[in-house]
Prior knowledge:
Layout: E1 5-8, H1 10-24, H2 28-43, H3 53-62, E2 73-78, E3 81-85, H4 91-109, E4 111-120, H5 126-133, E5 138-142, E6 163-170, E7 173-181, H6 187-195, E8 205-206, H7 216-221, E9 224-225, H8 230-243, H9 253-260, E10 268-276, H10 278-281, H11 286-302, H12 310-322, E11 324-327, H13 328-339
Parallel strand pairs: 3-4
Antiparallel strand pairs: 1-11, 2-3, 4-10, 5-6, 5-10, 6-7, 8-9
Helix pairs in contact: 1-2, 1-3, 1-13
The structure holds NADPH dihydro-nicotinamide-adenine-dinucleotide phosphate.
NADPH dihydro-nicotinamide-adenine-dinucleotide phosphate (NDP) binds next to strand 6, strand 7 and helix 12.
Amino acid sequence: MADKTVFLSEEDALTMSRNILLKKGFSKDVSRGLSETVVAGQKDGCGSHGLYRILGCIKTLEAGGVVPDAEPHVEDASGSIVRINANGGFSQLSFSLGLPLLIEKAKENGIALLAINHCVHFSALWIEVEQITRQGLVAIACNPTQAYVAPHGGSAPLLGTNPFAFGWPRPGKPPFVFDFATSTVARGDVELYEREGKPIPDGWGVDSKGQGCNDPRTVLEKGALLTFGEHKGAALSMMIELIAGPLIGDLMSYESSQHDKSKGALPYHGEVIIAMDPAMTAGRNFEEHLARAETLFDSVESQGARLPSGRRYKNREKSEKDGIEISEKLYLELRSLLDE
Length: 340
Ligand code: NDP
């Protein structure tokens, strides 16, 4: 039987989320940024990065894993580099404070890099990448997480689930965006299976001996997730460890796990975001080149294939029409936090 669901208006979802976070002790700015992120995730049908994440934010606060009123410090580090010290807070506020300077530098230099350091991070990256494409820029974002994933051929957790997102602006259309974990699935998806008491599909994880395992709790607590695409996904994951770790002077996933000291908090590390301006990189006729990109997208769709993010955009449209769908169980859990 399908789980019962309720529908919320965007405003009600934002208000509920903000009030819970404020009540738990997060500052006004932090509560607003977190709420916008989790409601955007829920609205686009990304359950593993939706309202459910409020529970993880609270758990992280209670475990002493995040500074609830952190004030990020923005540094204009060089001609094309913006550095932000999140000072132990969630990444959202840092991103929104650094975005204007990132865009300004990308438009000035053709390319710019935003390094967010010392942040607690859990969100879907498309939320950030879309904000950059809205300015007509191309975007890349990635970050390590914690040691949840075995390297290809290994059996112990070492790499993060390391998401990677790319965004390309499309005149008059929603941007071309893909955003995926380099593990077979995001860890949040395995957590949702565990919450629902369901076995996970083959190929998602292994037990402590490296044997394929369908029990979500064993995979989460004793085993490891697997990378997608075998050695190729593992190599991409290692690149992310490096460019969003040592390259920006921050932690890799296994170091983030050590930092956690088994608190079970959301991961603490850095994030790298790169913005590129086609008007500078492609030169005078850049609009013609962007039009050629449209031919690529059209050719994909004319074969009956779909573009990444198409599912999300459809869900967004539906949520705007019918309200944002949320499982009744989660809704009641969240309401009870307000009534406590
Ligand atoms: P999915 O495998 O669900 O989707 C990956 C991408 O592929 C999406 O852009 C998706 O678009 C697209 N896609 C899926 N199916 C198709 C298809 N048949 N044809 C074309 N495109 C397709 O994502 P993951 O489970 O790997 O990751 C989910 C989220 O988790 C991401 O947003 C990621 O940022 C986030 N995450 C965040 C972490 C963090 O530390 N902050 C850690 C790990 C993950 P669509 O959405 O429209 O289906």
